[in-house]
Every structure is written in C-alpha cells, then in structure tokens.
Specification:
This protein is an alpha+beta fold. The chain is built from ten helices and nine strands. Helix 2 crosses helix 3 and helix 5 packs antiparallel against helix 10. The longest helix is centred in the C-terminal third of the chain and has 20 residues. The radius of gyration is 21 Å and the shape is globular. The two termini are 27 Å apart.
Length: 257
C-alpha cells in the first residue's frame, strides 16, 4: 500500500495517520508508509514548519495549532452555524434540560457533529462535540441525512458497507434500506431509540437549501424525559426555520455530495 503512495500525496497521508493515533515518531511514519526514514523526516519537518505538526517529548509528533486556527476560520465563515446556533439553543429550552441539540453534516461514509448545544451537562446523554463522527447507518441523526441522498449514492454506500449494515440494523437488503428511508423522507423526521447512546431517544430533521440536504438537526433526550409528539414537532419546526433563514443568507453555499 504505502509503496504506491505518490510523493506529492505523502504529506496528506501523514496527516491521515493521526486519525487513528495521537502521536507518531518519524520511524513509525516511515514504516507505515514504506518510505525511507530520511524521506519521512523531510516531510515531517515541512509539516512542523507550517505548524501542522508539533514535536513532543519522546521524539514523537502530534497535530499542531494550525488545525485549531483553521477550525476557527471554518466556524467564523460557516453561515449554517451562524443561523442554526440560536435555534438550537431555543430548541433545548423548549423541550427539556435533559437534552442536547446536535448539528451534523455528512463526512465520507459517516456523519460528523459540527455543533452542539447542551441543556444540563449532568444529564450525561452522550458526547456529540464538534468533530465527533457517527456511523452513517445508525441513529436518527444519520438516517435523516441518508434519506435525502440519491438512489445512486445509497446503492454505492450500501454495497461498500453491506456487512456492517446487516450487523447493526434490521436491513437485509438495499430494498429494505430504501423503504425505511423513503418513509423518513416523507415524514420529514427520523426517530431512533438507544441506537447510539443507551437510554436516549434521537429525533432528527433535515436542513435543506435549494432542495438539497446540507445538514441534519437532532434532539438527543433521555428516554424517561421524552415527550415524543411535541418534541418531534419542535425539531421539525426548528429545522424548517433554519432552512428558511439559511436561504435568506447572501452567499450561503451547498456542499457537493
């Protein structure tokens, strides 16, 4: 694998290594990528010079502060966050303190949390901090985004993850998957029970721009605090308000899927 990595792609591959482990030495990077230690060292030094990596005790390297700066730029420049944040806070206030609202986007074959608003931290309803990922085929948060994908995209994702899908769900075929997702799309909301965090109910609705899903809005609530019908209506209403406000923003963009 590593021997096939083109020189111009090595820098990107080094950064991808940190998705699975927090710290790497040059020797470990060289071994993982099947390149010489001297080549790995040169690449690492380029990343250190740009603050993408930071040297730490033990001759290892960790991700550097440039990523924190880029995250700040993303948050400052993302119209979705600016529009959604006040609606998310109001949704928590209108339901129960034992809840959290979560904003998610598709990320590879997963969904990623990009913002959360928490009611009572002591409720311990799960961790949905910015950057956390969840499987695409489990939970209301993921299903409401899946429900708005094209049939071609669904088929590709299902075939690429068929074994995993069958292991974690009742879907035994692509037809089963599409039938449930069609129902979610028609209803405008998805509901799940303990699929991600035991003892919690997830209620999610799509955020749309130009008739395309750009994000999902979820309410995560303790099962013993959930009043399903009013909470479901509140989530749908909040997602629709965010969608309308987003459409009014000059320069709001739709990410390609």
């Amino acid at each position: 694998m590593a021997g096939e990595i083109r020189t111009r792609n090595r820098i990107l591959h080094i950064l991808q290594l940190f998705d699975g482990r927090g710290a790497w030495s040059v020797e470990e990077i060289a071994g993982e990528m099947d390149v010489s230690v001297s080549s790995a060292y040169r690449d690492v030094q380029e990343l250190v010079h740009a603050d993408f990596l930071t040297p730490v005790v033990g001759a290892r390297y960790v991700l550097g502060p440039t990523f924190a700066h880029f995250d700040l730029l993303m948050r400052q420049g993302d119209p979705l966050l600016k529009v959604a944040e006040p609606h998310m806070r109001r949704l928590v206030a209108a339901t129960t303190p034992s809840s959290a609202t979560v904003l998610t986007r598709s990320y590879q074959d997963k969904v990623m949390c990009v913002h959360q608003e928490i009611g009572d931290p002591a409720a311990r309803i799960g961790r949905y901090e910015r950057g956390a990922t969840m499987p695409m085929f489990r939970g209301a948060t993921s299903k409401v985004i899946l429900a708005h994908q094209s049939r071609r995209t669904l088929e590709r994702m299902y075939l690429a993850n068929e074994e995993q899908v069958r292991a974690v769900s009742h879907w035994q075929s692509l037809k089963d998957l599409c039938r449930e997702l069609d129902a979610i799309r028609e209803a405008g909301v998805a509901v799940s029970d303990s699929e991600i965090t035991p003892g919690t109910i997830g209620i999610a609705a799509p955020i749309l721009l130009e008739k395309r899903v750009v994000a999902g809005l979820s309410l995560i609530v303790r099962a013993d605090q959930c009043r399903l019908e009013p909470f479901r209506a509140a989530v749908i209403d909040a997602a629709q308000q965010i969608s309308r406000k987003l459409a009014e923003v000059d320069g709001a963009w739709v990410a390609r899927t």
